[in-house]
Amino acid sequence: KAKAIATPTRTKEILQKYGFSFKKSLGQNFLIDVNILENIVQHAGIDDQSGAIEIGPGIGALTEQLARHADRVVAFEIDQRLVPILDDTLAAYDNVSVVNQDILKADVRNVIEQHFEHGQSLKVVANLPYYITTPILMKLLMERLPVENITVMIQKEVADRMAAEPNTKSYGSLSIAVQYYTEAKVVMNVPKTVFMPQPNVDSSVLQLKLRDEPPVIVEDEEFFFEVVQATFGQRRKTLMNNLSRHLKGKIDKAELRAKLEAAGIDPGRRGESLSMEEFAALANAIYEA
Ligand code: SAM
């Protein structure tokens, strides 16, 4: 059996063979620990029926582990220099396709239709480029792709925010945005030493299980997210303060106060204490006004 790509020696060999230099601007920090990768693949629930979608395969460290366990793997990689390298490092696997596209611009739904069976269980697995973690995840969620779960290595601080519960330091509009679409959980914290080169920040593996239905019913999704954002606007201010500022000219203070009270929400509370259900009640009450 060939030596795994994700070892320090093999990684260095590959980089040297191709004279590859890391592009910091593309968030290139490659994984050099096979145990971590096997753990990620396990958490993702990849089996021989699964289709795996990877974002940013690099030189193929994770791609290889996915190819070994999944039915098929499709990997989006923006860096053209990596395409011939992946051709070489993944030559032993006939179930991998590399798509040389920017994930933020790609028509992911179309790529899915081209590469996977209709109704196949699909999972996104990636060690994401950290400079665009949130745009990538929000794109995947808002497009409502036919994906079962998303298991990603990201910056620890961002993972904590996405999975945060009310009344915690990390809780904010990003927690609501992500948890509206998914059940979010941090499944692993990962030391910097498993990357080459080592990043400046700590990392975690975040698991998102996509919901079939949103957890709350909102009259208007856009307005709901607008209210959430406004409520967290200035964290030290009350929700009444933040909201009346945001809705100035659209609804007067007395009416807003009445709406909040009708929705059973004390105007003196802070955004960070509100649950998703309370945000929904709040947004729906104001929307009707
Ligand atoms: N999966 C590899 C690993 O774990 O060793 C590499 C992970 S590295 C953190 C992130 C990868 O994403 C790099 O290969 C980088 O070139 C790629 N990347 C950066 N921006 C991208 C984008 N917009 N679309 C697709 N891939 C991107």
UniProtKB/TrEMBL annotation:
Key words of the record: Cytoplasm, Methyltransferase, RNA-binding, rRNA processing, S-adenosyl-L-methionine, Transferase
One family name in Pfam for this protein: RrnaAD
GO molecular function, one term: 16S rRNA (adenine(1518)-N(6)/adenine(1519)-N(6))-dimethyltransferase activity
Segments crossing the lipid bilayer: none
InterPro entries in the cross-refs: KsgA/Erm, rRNA_Ade_diMease-like_C, rRNA_Ade_Mease_Trfase_CS, rRNA_Ade_methylase_Trfase_N, rRNA_adenine_dimethylase, SAM-dependent_MTases_sf
Location(s), subcellular: Cytoplasm
CDD domains membership: AdoMet_MTases (cd02440)
Catalytic activity: adenosine(1518)/adenosine(1519) in 16S rRNA + 4 S-adenosyl-L-methionine = N(6)-dimethyladenosine(1518)/N(6)-dimethyladenosine(1519) in 16S rRNA + 4 S-adenosyl-L-homocysteine + 4 H(+)
Domain Ribosomal RNA adenine methylase transferase N-terminal, chain residue ranges per copy: 36-212
Highest taxon above the source species: Bacteria
EC number: 2.1.1.182
Binding-site residues, S-adenosyl-L-methionine: N29, L31, G56, E77, D102, N127
Coiled-coil annotated residue ranges, if any: none
Functional description taken from the UniProt entry: Specifically dimethylates two adjacent adenosines (A1518 and A1519) in the loop of a conserved hairpin near the 3'-end of 16S rRNA in the 30S particle. May play a critical role in biogenesis of 30S subunits.
Family matches, as NCBIfam families: ksgA
UniProt similarity note: Belongs to the class I-like SAM-binding methyltransferase superfamily. rRNA adenine N(6)-methyltransferase family. RsmA subfamily.
Name this polypeptide is given: Ribosomal RNA small subunit methyltransferase A
Species: Thalassobacillus hwangdonensis
